[in-house]
Amino acid sequence: MKQTRNWSVLLGAAFLMATSAVGPGFLTQTTVFTQSLKASFGFVILASIILDIGAQLNVWRVIAVSEKRAQDIANAILPGLGLFIAILIVLGGLAFNIGNVGGAGLGFNVLLGISAEAGAILAASISIAIFLVREAGKVMDRFAQVMGLLMILLIVFVAITSSPPVGEAVLRTFVPEQIDIIAIVTLVGGTVGGYITFAGGHRLLDAGIKGRDALPEVTTSAVSGITVASIIRIFLFLAALGVISKGLALDESNPPASVFQLAAGTIGYKLFGVVMLSAAITSVVGSAYTSVSFIKSFNRGIAKYENWVIIAFIVISTIIFVTIGRPVRLLILAGALNGLILPITLGTILIAAHKKKIIGDYRHPLWLTIFGILVVLVMAWMGGYTLLKQLPELF
């Protein structure tokens, strides 16, 4: 019975991480980069998957071995660092959750014809209902699994319908005609950046899967999460490639929607509504849950009333979207800061991986440390570049 429960939690954590990554931005990024790089985007996906696994395994393993959340690990290294990271995560999570709520509203708009604002309120109500249930963790796990599988099935259907040049896609994945470093970094940041890296790791900790004995399970769950997100990315890439290779032009105002519509007509457009809704509403849940998990260790009241704080987080995101839309300046700043969150948090985790007072006599694999350092350096450079470039636009 315990083994069955563990598998349910492990899959739940994997799908929570994956569906947190697959939001409205994920769908648009994948389509736009496929449009510009065509079959060579396969190489970008392959490179990002490798970097994603390096980042994810480092974070999840150290959280499991130390039996501490990321902010508590950071405070153990340098007092106050955990609070700083928590503030970054919560601000970034709130800003992007406004976009997630908006994406869910758009999904309902496509499906039911209601306004995006009314759709956002409906999506928020569904998300809130999850955290009103007594065993919210189990419901969240199952919700993420069902929505994730639904997205995979629908995107695979559209990919098959668009008849992509699979042979060329496979060839260019390993022998690309062009390499776009910015695209690689964007995908890494979008898949394991900000709060997303910690969504599954914190979920496993809350479910009691921790310690050295749990490392095989933690590793399986982490790799599963990246695999699910990557499967969705690959088939969305193939769907877009199939449309683009036929010389069809995508609608610049909504590239992913036009891929579905051009591949499968009116039915395809409705399927896009389902995929957008599934992607956005699971990201709303994942963002709210993980953001609050970063502040609950600082205050007993937050820990005691965690579900209500999560609900408040969702309500605030929805009110901001419905009343003032997506605040451009806030999103620009949050996007730039989010690029810096991964190198700061992953760098902290790598230091913790070699501190006995945090991980005891556990020996962190050298290859994981090297992988982690590579991701930290690349993301720090790109995050700094993005922040410096976008700051003038804010003032």
Automatic annotation (TrEMBL):
It is found in: Membrane. Keywords: Membrane, Transmembrane, Transmembrane helix. Signal peptide: none annotated. InterPro entries: NRAMP_fam. Pfam families: Nramp. The keyword Disulfide bond does not apply. It is a multi-pass membrane protein. The chain crosses the membrane at residues 7-27, 39-64, 76-98, 110-131, 143-161, 181-201, 222-244, 271-295, 307-324, 330-353, 365-388. This is NRAMP family divalent metal transporter. The lineage of its organism: Bacteria, Pseudomonadati, Bacteroidota, Cytophagia, Cytophagales.
